[in-house]
Amino acid sequence: MMNQEAIDAIHTCYHGKTLFRGDMHEHAQTGGTSDGKVPLSQWKNELKSLNMDFAAILDHRQVRHMYLEDWDETMFLCGSEPGTSVDCADGVRRRLHYNMLLPRKEDLPNVLAVFPEFRFSGGADGHFSYPGFKRERLSQLTGIILGLGGMFTHAHPKQIMDSQNPLDYYFHEHMCLEVVYESITSAATIQNYALWKDLLARGKKVYASAGADTHNLPVDRALTTLYAKRRHNTAFMEEIHRGNFTAGSAAIRMVLNGQVTGSTVAAKSGDLLCIVISDVLETDIHADHSYAVCIWGGNEVIWKNEISIREPFSFSLPIANHPFYRVTLLDTTLNIPLAYGNPIFVTYEP
Hints:
With 350 residues, the protein is of the alpha+beta class. 20% of the residues lie in helices and 33% in strands.
């Protein structure tokens, strides 16, 4: 299905950008306190063999991975994965992991230095600890990371934090929740997707991300798909920071009033939302499966239609007072989403 109005709107907003795929949560063997099993040099070769463009190497308790000779910011995203404990609504302190992704490698040492709780020893070979945080302090950390153009992601949330209150998993507007964890078919993904939907239903502006977290060879089972101006960490992070990416292997792009996926847009009922889905990874396509596009207006599917997954799909529809819009690409044979597009949030004009 082709819709020229949608195609034109998408082309205008994404002009000059190229499709890239990668993984937003990984670890390598970089010495020190890293617990990955594969060195950066091998990561480069393995990523190329899978036709992947980037991976976030988020080694624990250190910054040294970003200062090694094999570090390459055309392929690796900067950051680290600390852990902490945080006070929850019922008064219980619970564990969690979080990913700090940043546009420049020097941003991480700078953030650690601002928070003495990390006890960062400084320098390229410096190490830091995992402090417990009060919720307000963790929210402050999140805000600083976002203010630097980075992304704070609550990593594998339901797999570590044992809480039934969705708000315990939320720390700041425009943070990420790692919805796709390990693979699109994992039980973890199903749990995390339900959590994300609940937070969106409560009015929280939270993005969905994906990460395989293998600690071993890269895999293409938990991909992030985005369009960026060039192949570099800073360009990738520009799109990740604004929520303009897809958790999954398909390219899902939306535009409303000249603003792209992840944006908060001033609009009025009747304005056109334009959608294009394309470039599904070949390994996700099965000849004996059927596929559909679901368009969500707020917490309900407002449009669903079977599509041919090998062909680009484009569509436009007038908005109608829903607080946000998002798209999922569904494998209807397995009844699981292959890709989760991030929302466009809408503030309605009188």
